[in-house]
Amino acid sequence: MDNILLSARDLSVRFGGVLAVNQVSFDVRRGEVFTLIGPNGAGKTTVFNLISRIYTPTTGSISYTGPQGQVLLTQQAPHTVAGLGIARTFQNIELFEHASVLHNLLIGRHTRRETGLWSDMLFTSRVRSAEMRARHKAEEVIEFLDLQHYRDTLVAGLPYGVRKVVELGRALCTEPELLLLDEPSSGLNTEETDDMAFWIQDIRQDLGITVLMVEHDMSLVSKVSDRVLAMNQGEVVALGTPQEVQAHPRVIEAYLGSIDDVSNLRRPAGSAPARTAA
Which residues form the ABC transporter domain (predicted)? Predict the structure, then answer.
């Protein structure tokens, strides 16, 4: 289909005797927010690492149709992925703490580099023009994410929630077709999570960027996701809208246990909690 940006087929990954991902297949459509959910150890981040080429699948393939046409990601070197139009944030923030917000965002422009080493050393007019374009793009992202107040502040002095937004901004500076967000609400309070939902919606609607997300916060998932893929123990459990997936019996079981387990947690009507000895 023309609207499929990324397609994963029969992905499996084995680490020694552990089958971390088992025959996982899904498609990500252009312009949607597609979210992977599941309990800890379900294999979500492993799938992300396959797309980023940090891992190589034991079996299966991932195709991606970006600006250069369709390519097999499983045949690409890890350092080429960003240049294909795929950017990523990490659950544990990966920023240069002793550089300013602006400089961290400019680092995100490395995939758009237009000049070579010798011209950079001589700082030719072409290099100066490229530098101006890079700074213009970084300033656009700063304005888009309301980071003007922190523009020249060192990352080391920023609150955690702002750092999360800066990392998001650095990814946007690569001008990606596909943005991978690894638990964007991790470590954020309720207000900051609401702001993150706002940014994700604007990234999709205003910038036209497709978002593939791993997330635990189901309120965020429900607010921003078009489709959700639920995983458990490395396998696909359910695929559909957030409402459909959250109501799926196997998803409920993966998070809460079997129906019998949940029933055993309920107290009979009118019964009082048992008292414990002092």
Answer: 6-258
